[in-house]
Amino acid sequence: MGKEWALVFFTLLAQASVGLMVVAQALNAKDRSGLKGVLPWVGILMAASMLISLGHLGSPLGAPRAILNLKSSWLSREIFFAAGFFILWAINYLFETRSQAGEGVKAITGWLAGLCGVLALISMANIYVHTILPAWATAYTHIAFYSTALVLGAVLYAVLTHRAGQEGREGQLKQAAILAVIGIALQLVSLPPYLAYLGAGPAAAQETARQLTGAAPVLILSQALAVIGGIFFGVFALKAHGEKGAPQAGQWLYGALALLILAELAGRYLFYATGVSIMVGQF
Predict the structure, then answer these.
(1) Are the CB atoms for 173 and 158 separated by under 8 Å?
(2) Are 57 and 63 in contact (CB under 8 A)?
C-alpha cells in the first residue's frame, strides 16, 4: 500500500473540494451571501490535494509538461482541469469577496469553476477505468468517486455554514443532508452488483473479490460508518430546521462529519489495496 496513501488523500481531498464547490453553488443560487465562509475551504482543500499529488509523481517538475498530451492522456486532462478549477475558484473567490462584480458574473465564474472541477473528477476516474486492473475498470469507479464528492461536499458545506451561524439557512442544511444521503445510497446500492461482477469475472477480478472477503471487517465498517453518518446528518438537519439551529444539533453534525470521513477513507483504502493486475495467474 505504501506510496498509495498519497493517492488516497489526493483523491479524497480533490473530490471534497469539487463537491463543496458544486454543492455551495447549487444551494446559493438565489442568495450568494452564504458562499463567503465556504469558498476559502474549497481552495484550501484543492491546494492540499495538489501538493500531495506532487509527492506521488516520479518527477513533480514534469507535471506542467503533462498537459501536452491532452488528446490522448486522461492524466493530462486531470492535471489540466484541476489547475483550471483552482484558477477559476480563485477568480470566483475574488469576485465574491473583493469586487463589485454583478451577481451574474459571480454565478458564471462559480459554475465555470464547478464545471471544470467536475471534468477533473471525470478525468480522474477515467485514469483508473482505463487500466489493466479489472477491479478499477468498471462503472463502480465513477460512482465511487462522484458519490464521495457529493457526500463530503454536502457534509462540509453544512459544517461550515453551521459554524458561521448564519440565520435563515436551515432549509439549505436540510438540502445538504438530502444530497449526502443520495450519495451514500448510491454507494450502498452499487456495491452488491460490483462484488457480484468481481466474483464472476476474470482471475484478477476474482482475486480482488478474495481480498475484499479477507478485508470484510473493513468493508463492512466503511458501509456501516456511512449509514450511521447519514443518520446523524439527518438528525442534525431535522433538529436545526425545527429548533432554528439549536446548539445541540451541532453535535450530530460533527459526529456525521467524523463518521463520513472515516467511511470514505476506509473505502478508498480498499480501492487501492485490492487492485489486482490482469497478469495474475499468468506466466
Answers:
(1) yes
(2) yes
Q: Which three cell numbers stand for residue 151?
A: 457526500
Q: 79-123, pLDDT tens digit by residue?
A: 999 999 999 999 999 999 887 888 899 999 999 999 999 999 999
Quote the CA–CA distance of 243 and 55 in Å, as a whole number. 46
Amino acid occupying residue 269: Y
Residue partners of 200: CB distance under 8 A and separation at least 6: none
Kindly state the greatest CA–CA separation across the chain.
66
What whole-number distance in Å separates Cα of residue 227 and Cα of residue 29?
Answer: 29
Provide the grid cell at 241: 430546521
Which three cell numbers mark 45? 482543500
Give CA torsion, residues 46, 47, 48, 51, to 10 deg. Answer: 120
Confidence (pTM):
0.91
Query: Under a CB-based contact definition with an 8 Å cutoff, are residues 158 and 233 in contact?
Result: yes
The answer to whether 109 touches 123, Cβ cutoff 8 Å, is: no
For residues 197 and 199, what is the distance between their CA atoms, to the nearest angstrom?
A: 5
Q: Are 23 and 180 in contact (CB under 8 A)?
A: no
